[in-house]
Amino acid sequence: MGEAIYPVPAEWAENALIDDARYTAMYQQSVSDPDAFWAQEAGRIDWIKPFTKVKNTSYHAGDFGIRWFEDGTLNLSANALDRHLTTRGDQIAILWEPDSPDEAERRITYRELHEMVCRFANVLKDQGVNRGDRVTIYLPMVPEAAVAMLACARVGAIHSIVFAGFSPEALAGRVEDCGSRIVITADEGLRGGKKVPLKKNVDAAAAQAPGIEKVIVLARTGADVGMVPGRDIDWHAACAAVSPENSPEEMNAEDPLFILYTSGSTGKPKGVLHTTGGYSVWVSATHQYVFDYRPGQIYWCAADVGWVTGHSYLIYGPLLNGGTTLMFEGVPNYPDPSRFWQVVDKYQVEIFYGAPTALRALMREGDEWVKKTSRQSLRVLGSVGEPINPEAWEWYHKVVGEGRCPIVDTWWQTETGGTMITPLPGATALKPGSASRPFFGVQPLLLDNDGTIMEGPGDGCLVIADSWPGQMRGVWGDADRFFQTYFTTFAGYYFTGDGCRRDEDGYYWITGRIDDVINVSGHRMGTAEIESALVAHEHVAEAAVVGMPHEIKGQGIYAYVTCNADVEPDEALRKELIAWVRREIGPIATPDVIQFAPGLPKTRSGKIMRRILRKIAENDVGSLGDTSTLADPSVVDHLLANRPQLA
Ligand code: WT7
């Protein structure tokens, strides 16, 4: 079975910023002389005090540390806003399309955005926010989310955005972990015509997180949410009362910029920490080269600000590059499955960056929804968050892009800050389903289970050999966990947690997580996190969660649950547990399947054999492998005999 290859179209090779020869030359320099390469790329940022040292990194115990541009100073907000004012002050910075097509859009120029950010920075300062303080942002997809981020960066505060789909419990845990005194939220969010009670969730979180002293509330729907005197502050009133001028703080390149919580293979989500200088250079460079971006082009990244894609490629990358970034509040299928492409036509979007899960859902609705729109403005299509299956890739290419637009399938992680493996539209022949080749400065390696480097084609664990500027710098509040999690599985390498195949052409094909992390609709979930939510229920004795194949979501959540001896599990309890997990974590953690099991397959030493649970969830029961080391092999027969009927 030959795999399809799409060569670089001639006009792309001619006109793109990077063609294949240039990619090869630049990549070569980026890995042989990273100091020279990144010193040059750092010229895209206005430094207050120029750096004298580019790279100072080690992955080894003893002298472990990751520092880029370490003696340089800058302010990210000034780079994203102030420096554009003379050249593009009246250009649109943010186009905002509301949830409902009947509501008016907003078009915010760089000058207007600058003033909004300066005012909000002054509001933060009035509330006593200083350099290094943590500020939690729990906002829907409205321009004020960008304003809050940029205002934090301006005053030197560290933002921690919590996705507005997370529960009060999840919010409280993240607020407590980073010790933020302030939460910024809205009265309600709007998605697909439904209201999300954000302020109410913050009130509930505050009952569990006594550290919350102030809540700044943006009126989005105008609902009467009740303001707590002395604690709650109205966004607009506060902004109206302060000066429209604010001078940005001079930050060190290695000063923290943001914390973003993400799931790992162990219980609690970890606060991934990114710093200022390297991150700015990295997101600006990747955004420009990966999308062949020119200032002023209409660019739409459909990710939520609550995820790293929203941080790097909805806000920071495009604004650093003087871009016009489109923010869409809604969902792909509301009011109908044409919505995405109607928005493309409305704003003449040139670059669209979305997730495979949304594409698969839209693909299922039929081509008519796409074909009734023009989409002539589109030039580049992007994919992110999970492997894109070749069928969805071909549909994206043929139906959405009419065969005209290169697809950049970008592999990266919350930890990597920006894109690591990706095609470049003018340089890379495309293979549907492959993230293709490394970005500049990225040295991927495949290791076998013994940690031996594999040469040539093969399948192994994906690690990265050297540091890149946008790499995370730590786990908030737990210095040791950073080193332990990423640099001890294979000493001397950054361990990604992903499995990967490399083909004869040196193209990389990500095969998915090889740790206890699952990817549901492009959202990362720790199985341990869902298990601890389940066992927190009074009727549950034990739980084991694994991923299962899911046509739309990529992976679904399959939970095996053992109830307490005095409980007779039934349909009502199943429903209750599903609702329970949603409440504990949020709707994205909703289990797709709950299988009640009187016992789980364990080794004699008590370790759950997840391999078997995965196979059963995948309906791959012919190859359960060796079950002889199980303490009680009959457990497996019971599991097989009682698999729930899947829809
Ligand atoms: C995990 C990281 C990328 C930012 C948003 C998700 C998977 C991500 C791809 C891709 C195959 C991908 C990996 C990775 N992943 N992009 N293009 N092809 N897999 O960030 O939540 O930190 O998740 O998402 O498994 O490890 P995240």
UniProtKB/TrEMBL annotation:
Mg(2+) binds at V535, H537, V540. It is an enzyme of class 6 (ligase). One of its GO terms (molecular function) is acetate-CoA ligase activity. GO terms for biological process: acetyl-CoA biosynthetic process from acetate. The keyword Nucleotide-binding applies. Residues 82-474 form the AMP-dependent synthetase/ligase domain. Coiled coil: none annotated. It catalyses: acetate + ATP + CoA = acetyl-CoA + AMP + diphosphate. PANTHER family: ACETYL-COENZYME A SYNTHETASE, ACETYL-COENZYME A SYNTHETASE 1. This is Acetyl-coenzyme A synthetase. It comes from Novosphingobium sediminicola.
